[in-house]
């Protein structure tokens, strides 16, 4: 599937252009063209490779998945690889969608799979159409702002879920297994998000370089705003990853403390039970002693059992073992 748009002098002039028209439009002043490919092959990009002079290595990267986020510089164009991120409504599974783009002076060519909601990108451009006069810089800013805002939303969502995890940490009724599972799921999502967000700092740094002349002075503040969001998202991701690690360590410490408390209680009750065992064992000897085979022996043994057990119980309660 191929989508196209033509902007001329800051206005959306046409959509769904024929690919044969694009080469002629690119030579006209004030024109900026967006071409969007969904799940193309190298053969599908062959026409654009010829028209825009795309490097064959960039075309190869565009059709192969699992590229790292980057902005490569070629003689006639730039090649961007980035990711859209989203968090599942239920659970903590992070899904990422790869998006690539070829950037020339008059055209932006985007390449992505079926999972990327391209309608949100066109809505972004339509909402900010007062910037359309900046041509390809405007198109590129809309794409990067959409992706980075998505990263920021995911980080905020993860932060809220980690707060819920902190509340469950000290809840006596929460399941240890469920807490550990949620902790590891969140940590896994944060590690995966970090791989997506962290390289975007270098990507935005490259875009903001004046020698590349990607963004004119009027668009610089908008790209700078995206860069600020990238910095906040990356720093926030690092902080949350450390926080999840601290939660896991705290959970292990709490489990250790609970185990120590259980052992104290078991030891205390074992000591209390040992008193009647010792007394009855002594009075069970088949030798003459004070009260042997008399009521006095029964009273004496019961008194020792009661006094010893109550004394140990009082002592352990005082030490907060029971």
TrEMBL record:
Primary localization class, coarse: membrane
GO molecular function, one term: cobalt ion transmembrane transporter activity
Record-linked Pfam families: CorA
InterPro entries on file: CorA_cytoplasmic_dom, CorA_TM1_TM2, MgTranspt_CorA/ZnTranspt_ZntB
Cellular compartments annotated: Cell membrane
Annotated transmembrane regions: 266-284, 296-316
Membrane protein topology class: Multi-pass membrane protein
Residues of the signal peptide: none
Keywords (A to Z) from UniProt: Cell membrane, Membrane, Transmembrane, Transmembrane helix, Transport
GO CC annotation, single: plasma membrane
PANTHER family in the record: CORA FAMILY METAL ION TRANSPORTER (EUROFUNG)
Family named by the database record: Belongs to the CorA metal ion transporter (MIT) (TC 1.A.35) family.
Entry protein name: Magnesium transporter
Naturally occurring in which organism (per UniProt): Sinomonas humi
């Amino acid at each position: 599937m191929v989508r196209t748009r033509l902007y001329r002098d800051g206005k959306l002039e046409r959509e769904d252009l024929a690919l044969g028209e694009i080469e002629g439009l690119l030579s006209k002043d004030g024109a900026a063209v967006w071409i969007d490919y969904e799940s193309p092959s190298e053969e599908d990009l062959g026409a654009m490779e010829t028209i825009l002079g795309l490097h064959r290595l960039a075309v190869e990267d565009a059709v192969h998945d699992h590229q790292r986020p980057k902005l490569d510089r070629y003689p006639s164009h730039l090649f961007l690889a980035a990711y859209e991120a989203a968090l599942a409504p239920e659970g903590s599974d992070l899904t990422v969608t790869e998006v690539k783009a070829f950037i020339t002076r008059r055209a932006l060519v985007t390449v992505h799979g079926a999972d990327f909601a391209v309608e949100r990108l066109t809505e972004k451009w339509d909402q900010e159409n007062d910037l359309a006069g900046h041509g390809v810089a405007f198109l590129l800013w809309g794409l990067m702002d959409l992706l980075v805002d998505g990263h920021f939303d995911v980080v905020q969502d993860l932060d809220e879920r980690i707060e819920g995890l902190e509340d469950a940490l000290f809840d006596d009724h929460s399941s240890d297994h469920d807490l550990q599972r949620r902790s590891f799921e969140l940590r896994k999502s944060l590690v995966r998000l970090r791989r997506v967000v962290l390289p975007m700092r270098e990507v935005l740094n490259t875009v903001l370089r004046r020698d590349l002349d990607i963004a004119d002075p009027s668009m610089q503040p908008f790209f700078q705003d995206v860069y600020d969001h990238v910095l906040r998202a990356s720093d926030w991701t690092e902080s949350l990853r450390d926080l999840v690690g601290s939660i896991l360590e705290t959970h292990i410490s709490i489990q250790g403390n609970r185990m120590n408390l259980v052992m104290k209680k078991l030891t205390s009750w074992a000591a209390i039970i040992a008193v009647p065992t010792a007394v009855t064992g002594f009075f069970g000897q088949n030798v003459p002693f004070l009260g042997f085979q008399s009521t006095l022996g029964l009273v004496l043994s019961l008194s020792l059992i009661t006094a010893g057990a109550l004394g140990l119980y009082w002592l352990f309660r005082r030490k907060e073992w029971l």
